[in-house]
Amino acid sequence: MNQRGRERTRRGRRTDRRADGQSVRRAAASPRVEGRPRRVRREPAKSRLRRGFGAKQAAGATRVLGMSTTRRAAVLAIVVCALAFTLAVPLRTYLSQRSEIAEQEQRQAELRNDVTELQARQAALNDPAQVEAEARRRLRYVMPGETPYLVQLPEDTPQGKQQQAQQPPHPGGVAWYDQLWSTLGG
Predict the structure, then answer these.
(1) Which tens digits make up the pLDDT trace of 64-85?
(2) Contact 1/7 with Cβ under 8 angstroms?
(3) What positions belong to coiled-coil segments (predicted)?
(4) Among the listed residues 134, 116, 137, the one whose alpha carbon sits nearest the alpha carbon of residue 126
(5) Separation of alpha carbons 80 and 50, rounded Å
(6) How far apart (Å, rounded) are the C-alpha atoms in residues 19 and 16?
(7) What DSSP state is assigned to residue 29?
(8) What counts of helices (H) and strands (E) characterise the chain?
(9) Which of 59, 115, 146, 160 would bridge 154 by S-S if both were Cys, CB 3.0 to 4.6 A apart?
(10) Interhelix angle 69-125/55-65, nearest 10 degrees
(11) How far apart are CA 178 and CA 129, in angstroms?
(12) Distance between CA atoms of 121 and 127, rounded to whole angstroms?
């Protein structure tokens, strides 16, 4: 046998090459008795029908990946779950940060409104007439030469407040519900 003339194929059969370059297939050497026909192992027709038309395709896929359909489905489920868990935490963080950003933007808008109000108040207080009016109203200041008049009501004085606290809340010193209870109870 010459090296160039024979080559092994994937299925273990040998190929002979002729002088003109065409190949001729020969069956692999097997212990066979001369004169006896070769037995071909076949599946029963029922089992072939039960497997269906996609059996050849599934068998090819099994050979390629080396796993059954159930195992491939399990591996696929595990990969999908791993991806889901990998993406879940960053997605949750992203969504929580979006809500925090919205809250902070709302707070920033409120603070901008406060700043504009305070700037308007500052501009108003730069006017000397406004400052004088605030001093008169809040601090009860008067200009030199003016006579201030302050009217005090009895409730405004500390003595009036002490007198009200010392007076009993109800005439006779007993509340009406206590009187009612005492009359019912005997």
Answers:
(1) 567 788 999 999 999 999 999 9
(2) no
(3) 94-121
(4) 134
(5) 32
(6) 10
(7) P
(8) 6, 3
(9) 160
(10) 70
(11) 59
(12) 10
